[in-house]
């Protein structure tokens, strides 16, 4: 028995091959040093062509090299975790903690109610004692249709939960489950029960969809539920009282499923909003949820998921608890983060949405250094720590202590609702530490990452749990502009963190491991990559057109470090991508997105930061769309790039693509017509030709979108005209000036 007790609840494995990796990266670093030396020692003399271009390249290469160094710590020591959930239930089944699950939604137009309900239902059906489970839906749009949908879902859940339990249904999101069995050919043993439950689901779905379509809750439903009366004082989504309704609660005798079992607690919350009071976006919503839930269920563990991320494994809650409840290491762990995985990423992942290398390689590495970031979804927290507790070595969570505490206060459900409402009012946080030292941090576009960092700075660790079978599945962006805008927000938020009080560059010094510090900087300095990348995409090509070499020629010994670094680094990236489960085509697509993010998302984020700094613009939180129109999703399935409307970002991308095309073509024409020099240019300017050539190849979808495609997803004519004019005049001007 004693031996059994001491067996850990989870295991940590270290990756192999670290020595080879270290040797390889050292050799690359030597190559980079040679490149720097070459640049410094070969600066053209005063009066020679290309002096300033050369110095620019030197700066860009210095920055690329330094940034490259930052990525190393989290490749040195990746770790992989495996929980043992049967041990958990052997030891702790009786004293499992309460768990509160937060689902946040913000816009019913972009996040359809049916999708949100599937997420809610999937987490309600976790394989977990229902009396210890509570689900909270925060609706930042305060939409009565979402409330109506949740009402419908609570009724359907009374059938769905017993059904899931009885037939061990996986996944527990009804939509995903029905889809998975429709494609599955072997006969089920529960056909008789399947048909009625599917009918119930489809009826619910069509009622919700109808209500959403007409934009109104059915007339006959309103008077039946008193909850709707709370919308009487509603004027707009930015101006209303707190709306809070406990839809299911153990106190209420009707909150039983069809088999008579207790249901999880289910709560709808739309916190108070007033136009003159900052609502702090998702961080504000999460903090209201933290307070309201502390009154209603006060779960020790909190899981938060985005409204599009349904649970794909009914055991993942128990898996996460293995980390928290482990006797030896559990007490240091503040949160357990799962990767953000997507259901609708196509095979070759045109927009690099899967973030493969980040989740399969880099986060494991961060875990080895003290823990991954908190990324705002699919994350399990300890309530106390999220609410600001500092680490101390004596801290031990005595899970048994909670066993008999009943957090339900005396009094009726109605009283409980009224008391909880006060906690979600928009004046509650005035003169408190909420948003500063408690709960999620305010004032940053990536509130989750900065909150995770502040928790780490208080001495806690986190754990990365990346199971083969995904714990949650969400929806990735399906158009190019969406993907770019998402990265704009991330990079902007990241840079805000660097400038914030919690800057990983200085504040975190001594509080977290230096490797982790570098890891945070690596992700948060994205914005600063835009200028050097832009420079590299423009200047060498223009000088190619003019015939001035900026790189060593092939016969020079200095050519070797360039060739080695280029080949070595790209093969390494390719291998890492393939190892993470990608395809070769996928890597090519990912490289394209890597480029586009740098020259558009990060650049625009940079301007936004500057504008905000001088007070010219307000923060905005752009939510990415979770549904696509019919023909858009057809093109998405076929992996045809979707450009859509004209926007400055697209114009910029197209201009740069064309600029490179014109430079390369111009150079070729010169070769044909002015034959002196002849083939020598490939000798003297091989690297510049290669760079332009790769840029042209990678931009093939842009040329197609500009001139060849006829469908609606192409680049608009206006963009074609603007970008062609801009690129041509840049080339002509550049030639004319010199
Ligand atoms: C989701 O869960 C199902 C089982 O319900 C499993 O077969 C599938 O592989 C999971 N999906 C992913 C992406 O892990
Ligand atoms: C938003 C979107 O395009 N969702 C799609 C995700 O992928 C599934 C299957 O590939 C589609 O059915 C969804 O429409």
TrEMBL record:
It is found in: Golgi apparatus membrane. SUPFAM superfamilies: Nucleotide-diphospho-sugar transferases. The keyword Cytoplasm does not apply. UDP-alpha-D-glucose binds at residues 111, 140. Mn(2+) binds at residues 282, 306. The chain crosses the membrane at residues 20-40, 52-70, 523-545, 557-579, 599-628, 649-669, 681-703, 715-737. Thought to be a Golgi-localized beta-glycan synthase that polymerize the backbones of noncellulosic polysaccharides (hemicelluloses) of plant cell wall. This is Cellulose synthase-like protein E1. It comes from Glycine max.
């Amino acid at each position: 028995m004693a031996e059994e007790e001491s067996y850990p609840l989870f295991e940590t494995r270290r990756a192999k091959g670290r020595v080879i990796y270290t040797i390889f990266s050292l050799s690359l670093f030597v190559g980079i040093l040679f490149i720097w030396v070459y640049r410094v020692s070969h600066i053209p003399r005063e009066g020679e062509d290309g002096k300033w271009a050369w110095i620019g390249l030197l700066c860009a290469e210095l920055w690329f090299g330094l940034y490259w160094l930052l990525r190393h710590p989290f490749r040195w020591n990746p770790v992989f975790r495996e929980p043992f959930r049967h041990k958990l239930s052997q030891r702790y089944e009786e004293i499992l903690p309460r768990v509160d699950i937060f689902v946040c939604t913000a816009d019913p137009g972009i996040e359809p109610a049916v999708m949100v309900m599937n997420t809610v239902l999937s987490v309600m059906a976790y394989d977990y004692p229902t009396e210890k489970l509570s689900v909270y839906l925060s609706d930042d749009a305060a939409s009565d249709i979402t409330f109506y949908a949740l009402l419908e879902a609570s009724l359907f859940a009374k059938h769905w939960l017993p059904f899931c339990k009885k037939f061990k249904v996986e996944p527990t999101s009804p939509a995903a489950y029905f889809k998975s069995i429709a494609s599955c050919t072997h006969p089920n043993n529960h056909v008789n029960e399947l048909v009625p439950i599917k009918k119930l689901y489809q009826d619910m779905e069509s009622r919700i969809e109808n209500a959403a379509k007409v934009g109104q809750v059915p007339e006959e439903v309103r008077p039946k539920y008193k909850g709707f009366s709370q919308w009487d004082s509603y004027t707009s989504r930015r101006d209303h009282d707190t709306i809070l309704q406990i839809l299911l609660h153990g106190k209420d005798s009707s909150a039983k499923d069809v088999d008579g079992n207790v249901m999880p607690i289910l709560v709808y919350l739309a916190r108070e909003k007033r136009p003159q009071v900052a609502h702090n976006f998702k961080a504000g919503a999460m903090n209201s949820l933290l307070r309201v839930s502390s009154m209603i269920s006060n779960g020790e563990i909190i899981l938060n998921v985005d409204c599009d991320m349904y649970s794909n494994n009914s055991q993942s809650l128990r898996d996460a608890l293995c980390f928290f409840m482990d006797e030896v290491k559990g007490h240091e762990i503040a949160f357990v983060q799962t990767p953000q995985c997507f259901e609708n990423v196509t095979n070759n992942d045109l927009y690099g949405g899967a973030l493969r290398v980040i989740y399969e390689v880099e986060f494991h590495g961060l875990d080895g250094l003290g823990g991954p970031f908190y990324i705002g979804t699919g994350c399990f927290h300890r309530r106390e720590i999220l609410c600001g507790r500092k680490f101390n070595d004596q801290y031990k969570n005595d899970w048994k202590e909670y066993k008999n505490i009943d957090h339900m206060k005396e009094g009726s459900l109605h009283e409980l609702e009224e008391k909880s409402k006060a906690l979600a009012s928009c004046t509650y946080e005035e003169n408190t530490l909420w948003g500063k030292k408690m709960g999620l941090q305010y004032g940053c576009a990536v509130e989750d990452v900065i909150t995770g960092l502040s928790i780490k700075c208080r001495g806690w660790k986190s754990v990365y749990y990346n199971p083969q079978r995904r714990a949650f599945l969400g929806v990735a962006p399906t158009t190019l502009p969406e993907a770019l805008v998402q990265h704009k927000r991330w990079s902007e938020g990241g840079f805000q963190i660097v400038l914030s009080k919690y800057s990983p560059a200085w504040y975190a010094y001594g509080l977290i491991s230096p490797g982790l510090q570098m890891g945070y900087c690596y992700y948060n300095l994205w914005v600063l990559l835009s200028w050097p990348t832009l420079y590299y995409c423009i200047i060498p090509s223009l000088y190619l057109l003019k015939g001035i070499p900026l790189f060593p020629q092939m016969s020079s010994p200095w050519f070797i470090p360039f060739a080695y670094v280029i080949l070595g680094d790209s093969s390494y990236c390719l291998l890492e991508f393939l190892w993470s489960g990608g395809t070769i085509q996928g890597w090519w697509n990912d490289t394209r997105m890597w480029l586009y993010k740098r020259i558009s998302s990060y650049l625009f984020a940079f301007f936004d930061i500057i504008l905000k700094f001088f007070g010219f613009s307000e923060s905005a939180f752009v939510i990415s769309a979770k549904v696509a129109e019919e023909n858009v999703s057809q093109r998405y399935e076929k992996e045809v790039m979707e450009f859509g409307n004209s926007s400055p970002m697209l114009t910029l991308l197209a201009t740069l693509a064309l600029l490179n095309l014109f430079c390369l073509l111009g150079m070729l024409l010169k070769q044909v017509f002015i034959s002196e020099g002849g083939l020598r240019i490939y000798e003297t300017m091989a690297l510049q030709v290669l760079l332009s050539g790769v840029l042209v190849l990678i931009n093939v979808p842009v040329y197609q979108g500009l001139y060849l495609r006829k469908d609606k997803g192409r680049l608009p004519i206006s963009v074609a005209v603007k970008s062609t004019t801009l690129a041509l005049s840049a080339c002509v001007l550049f030639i004319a000036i010199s």
